[in-house]
Amino acid sequence: RLVAAAKGRARRARQRFADGLGDSLPIDGPSFGAYRLLEPLLHVRKVGGTALHMDSSADYNTIAQSTVTGGGSQAFYLGSSYNTVRDSLVTAPNGGNALRLSAGARGNAVLRSTMTSDDASAPAVYFNAVSTNSIYDSYVQGSTAVVVESSTGAFLGGSVLVATAAGGAALAVDGGAVNIGVSSSTLVGGGQWAALSLGLSGSGYAH
Q1: CA 116, CA 39: separation in Å to the nearest integer?
Q2: Residue 34 has what DSSP assignment?
Q3: What are the two backbone dihedrals, phi and then psi, of residue 67, each rounded to the nearest 5 degrees?
Q4: How far apart are CA 67 and CA 23, in angstroms?
Q5: Is the pLDDT assigned to residue 41 strictly greater than 90?
Q6: Residue 90: beta bridge partners?
Q7: What is the pLDDT of residues 167-196, one digit of tens each?
């Protein structure tokens, strides 16, 4: 009974922590420190703003079995390194990117997760000036599913990328992006554009 009571207190504490990440948050949401395991009760929602913000000091975190819903510029801003997002849902139903990796984010991995955006022009996932980040076994949907720009070493494996706009690409690589890899994935482009779009200054491989 003592063990059950302790587990119950821990579960309630986690739930209070999750509840504290609701609509009353500041516009940029919480900034996390390093080395946290956040599972499985993280449910973050911010209407019209960033729901989850991880800045350059928020390294080596794990977000698992969680839901992040936001909008504005992005639902989830990831500007830190060596984090793992797994078995989670990230959505931007009111515009913006579902997930934006920026500010030199490095070595992050997204596993078995779903990321969607309803924005008519912004991609669901945006790699902007980052390196060696990866998405595995996941589903991404947006007007353009994924854009990789000015980045090095992005890898997408075992995933499904779907463009919902007629002129959207499943994956667009441009702006000096190099060493971009796609493997064992399904890319569905819009009816008026290519599934895989490689800009003149982008390079990578697909198999």
Answers
A1: 21
A2: S
A3: -125, 130
A4: 14
A5: no
A6: 68, 115
A7: 999 999 987 899 999 999 999 999 898 899
Structure tokens at 50: 């960033």
Supply the DSSP symbol for 32: -
Dig out the tokens for 80 from the structure.
């830190």
Cα–Cα nearest to 163, from 117, 113, 99, 112:
117
- Verify cis geometry, omega within 30 degrees of 0, for the bond prior to 93: no
| Rounded Cα gap, residues 73 and 85, in angstroms | 20
In angstroms, the CA 162 to CA 157 distance is 14
Tally of CA atoms within 13 A in the half-sphere of 52 that contains its CB: 28
Range 88-91, long-range pairs (CB < 8 A, 24+ positions): 88/63, 88/64, 88/113, 88/114, 89/113, 89/114, 89/115, 90/114, 90/115, 90/116, 91/67, 91/115, 91/116, 91/117
Q: Which amino acid is at 22?
A: G
SS3 41: coil
pLDDT tens-digit profile of 131-155? 999 999 999 999 999 999 999 999 9
